[in-house]
Amino acid sequence: MSGATVFIIGGENKFYLDLQQLLSTDEMVVYRKENFQQAMDFFELYPPHMVVLDCPEGVDGLTHCQTIRTIYPELLMLISERKNNSFHKLALDLGADSSMACGDGAPLVAANIKALLRRFIPKKPDLQLKFGRLTVDARRRDVFIDGQAIALSTVEFQLFWSLAQKAGSVVSREVIHQDIYNTRYNGYDRSIDLYISRIRQKIGNHTKAAKCLKTVRGVGYQFIDDAGGQNLRPKN
């Protein structure tokens, strides 16, 4: 999983070197320490998305698992030297998210690490939404129609972006007010209506695009596609 950070606490043997190579090839950031205490000092300062712990079968290995869990709540995989179902069960009971053995092979362990990361690391939200001729870019805080920038104020853009993210859905004034002002709607404030009017004026030269903000009487507003008035989701 590109961009994920994995911290391996394991010796300089073929299994861990192969595992580090496999994960690095998938554009992950991979750190490895052999000494447990050095590793603890490091990832307390730079917490990774996942820790992979070399866990000898016995009290010491399980103690390390418990120690990590006191300071680290994220993904934790234990690796034992050989398969031992009783040991793996105990490791899971003590808080590990997965427990495997070196004998499973580095490719299979790497595949399990990637699967866990895909499930538990949220995807980055889309920062650019496209609707036909219209593009909303959250990085630049700009709206473009046919490549031409439309100058919106900070609040106007925030309102436009909030509705664009919910394209096709009718959004109440209460929800919009919470998104924009982070306060509860009092039932009387009409500033949202004023900002909608200003946005429509600014994109008014683009006849079809101006219709992307639809008033739903008595409820709020709906962001619709700029061509044909159909309720569409953002295009990739």
| C-alpha-based Rg, rounded | 26 Å
Q: Distance N terminus to C terminus?
A: 20 Å
Instruction: Tell me the structural class.
Output: alpha/beta
Which CATH-level-2 architecture of the largest domain? 3-Layer(aba) Sandwich
- CATH H-level name of the largest domain... which superfamily? Response regulator
Strand content: 15-25%
Estimate percent helicity: 25-40%
Question: Under CATH, the topology of the largest domain is which?
Answer: Rossmann fold
The overall number of domains is 2
What is the tally of beta strands?
Answer: 12
Low-confidence stretches: 227-236
N-to-C series of helices and strands: EHEHEHEHEHEEEEHEHHEE
Describe the structure.
Helix content is 39%, strand content 22%. The radius of gyration is 26 Å and the shape is elongated. With 236 residues, the protein is α/β, with parallel strands linked by helices. The protein folds into 2 domains: 5-120, 3-Layer(aba) Sandwich (Rossmann fold); 128-223, Arc Repressor Mutant, subunit A, CATH 1.10.10. The chain is built from 8 helices and 12 strands. Helix 1 packs across helix 5 and helix 6 crosses helix 8. It has helices at residues 14-25, 36-45, 59-71, 85-93, 106-120, 154-165, 173-181, 191-202, and strands at 5-9, 29-33, 50-54, 75-80, 98-101, 128-131, 134-137, 142-145, 148-150, 170-172, 213-216, 220-223.
